[in-house]
Amino acid sequence: MSEPITYAGAGVDVEAGDRAVELMKESVARAQRPEVVGGLGGFAGLFDASALRGMSRPILATSTDGVGTKVAIAQAMDRHDTIGIDLVGMVVDDIVVSGAEPLFMTDYIACGKVVPERIAAIVSGIARGCELAGVALVGGETAEHPGLLAPDEYDVAGAATGVVEYDDVLGPQRVREGDVVLALASSGLHSNGYSLVRRVIAAAGWDWGRHVDELGRTIGDEALEPTRIYTKMLLDLIRTPGLNVHALSHVTGGGLAANLARVLPTGALATVDRSSWTPPAIFSLVQHLGSVPQADLERTLNMGVGFVAVVPGEQADAAVARSVELGVPAWVLGEVAADTGETGADIVRGAKGVDGGAVQVTGSHTS
């Protein structure tokens, strides 16, 4: 008679999953808001939405995302406590683009084998990201997929919901000729373009533990630098008396030009000047190490600009000053004018299915 087949024998350790939940409880407890009802472990997270009754026309905003192949570097370096910060940033900072305040978030972790300490480390990063964003972590799921993922492999995803008054929604409808485009500095690569970065590093024969003088640390430490979370400072900027933010853009996949074009109205052209900033060393390193064409680099990586804000021209200096006060370096990137219909390799019109405005990138970066 053959041996009986059990769930544990099939590769799923329920007890390890329970242990992971116990280890993450303390981290999750720090990522809360007063509207959260109940605690960890329910079938669904509960959030008191009664405050929305005081709004004239509350519009819910939702977003979902992951961190792409950046998880492969975390796995290679056996460092798992920062990838969750990336996850939160990629989700909640898409929500704030519309002017909405993210309220709560859930996460999903799929892994080949539940190692409680590793899962707890991942969730600690997610909880830390939620703290930084002022978002409640109301629940999540860890799924063990033996045979589909290797024991040390995992992937993460998340979703969040926010709210904004209808009259306060930001976007192309507010942008005008004469507006100024502001850049908000990124913390590094953030969480886009890692398939390119990993290919470049592999082709060079580098190990992630290799120290790089121009970076001042290992290439792995640089690659795992967490995504900057802009949510709190952007909400503060939007609510600053005397400032009128017209549009925001999260610079993710597609690069600066394509993402800025998504939040401009048809008929508008934003001119962006490369000479207004010097990209951090990691971007030139990737370019030179892999002989990556400039156009491909700019379509893939953020080049040091993690977010863009469009404001009235006369408010640009005040907006830059306020951003710096809030801890995020900012500068004037360009301006908005009428689109004359010119074409060229340096002009992007619309992106990701959005029939938006146009962006022209000019000049060269300062060294």
Automatic annotation (TrEMBL):
InterPro entries the record matches: PurM-like_C_dom (IPR010918), PurM-like_C_sf (IPR036676), PurM-like_N (IPR016188), PurM-like_N_sf (IPR036921), PurM_cligase (IPR004733)
Record key words, sorted: ATP-binding, Cytoplasm, Ligase, Nucleotide-binding, Purine biosynthesis
Pfam families from the UniProt entry: AIRS, AIRS_C
Enzyme class: ligase
Localization, UniProt: Cytoplasm
GO molecular function, one term: phosphoribosylformylglycinamidine cyclo-ligase activity
Residue span(s) of domain PurM-like C-terminal: 176-343
Enzyme Commission numbers on file: 6.3.3.1
CDD domains (UniProt xref): PurM (cd02196)
Organism superkingdom: Bacteria
Ranges in a coiled coil: none
Family affiliation: Belongs to the AIR synthase family.
Protein's name in the database: Phosphoribosylformylglycinamidine cyclo-ligase
Lineage: Bacteria, Bacillati, Actinomycetota, Actinomycetes, Micrococcales
